[in-house]
Amino acid sequence: MTQPAKSYYRVMLGRQSVHAAECFASGFIGADYKINQDLTGQLPDEWRQFNASFIPAFLAGHPDKSKIAAGLACGALWTVAKGIRTGDLVLCPDGTGQYHVGEVQGAYYYAPSQVLPHRRPVKWLPLTIARAAMSEALRNSTGSIGTVSTITEHHQEIEHFLAALPGQAAPNIVATDPVVEDPVAFAMEKHLEDFLVKNWAQTELAQSFKIYEEDGELVGQQYGTDAGPIDILAISKDGQRLLVAELKRGRASDVVVGQILRYMGYVKEQIAEPHQTVEGAIIALDDDQKLRWALQMVPSISFYRYQVNFKLIKN
Fold it and tell me: What's this model's pTM, rounded to 2 decimal places?
C-alpha cells in the first residue's frame, strides 16, 4: 500500500482533554510532563537520544515513577515537540465524543508558565469527526492510552472525512494490498490484540504476568519504541520479569524471532531495571518447522497458539 506523504496522529490535550478548548481557541497542541525548560536546540532527530538525556531528569523530578513511565513520557514529549512534522494532521478529542482536526503549521516553541508549555502551532480545520462515525479500527486506534498515538494506517478513512471540507475531492480507495494476502486474517490481527488485552485474565500468561499499568492506566498495549511498537508489554506479579508479547495473524514464521529479539533488546537496554530479566512470547494461530528450530536456540522466547471459536446459537 502506498504510504501517504504526511503522517496522522491522535493527540490528547491534557488528561481527559481538559485543555482542549484553550488549544482550539489559541491554535496549538502541546505537552507538559513537568519538564520545565525550553527544549529549543535539545530535540535530536532520534527520540532515543532525547530519552537518554531527559529520562534521568524526569525520574529525578518524579522519584515515584518507573523507567517505563519515564520512557513513555519522554517519548511522547519528543513526538509532540519534534516527531510530528509540519504538515502532519492531528485528531484531538474535545471530551464530548468529537475529534477536532488540525494541520501542524510550524516548529516547536516554549510557553513558560502556561498550560501544555511544549507547543506546536496548529491550524484547526472547520471540521469535527464524531467518534461514533468512525470505523471500529479507527475508534480503537484513537482510543489508545497515552498522550499521542500514530494513526497513519487509517489515513484513507480520515481523508474521506476531510473530503467533506469545501473544495476537497474524495480520495480514491486502494482496495488491494499485496502485503495482506487475506483481508479477513489481517482484520482479525487488529482485533486479536484488543481481544487479548480485554481477556488477559483468562489466559495462561495472566498466571504470572499483568499488562503494564502506570497510575491505574493501561500503558503496555502498543508500547512505542524506536525498535517498533511492542504489541503487549507485561510485567511479572513479583516485578522481576518483563515480557514482550508479539501477535501474528495466521502462521508465524522464523522471521518473527528476529523481530521480537529486537524488541527484547530494546527493553533490556532502555527499560529494564538491573534486577529484571526480559522474556518474549510469540502468539499466533500456528507455527512451522523453521520457527520451531529457531526457538530451540532461544529459550527465553515461548510460543503460544490462539484458538478462535465461532458458534451460532438459535434463539
Answer: 0.67
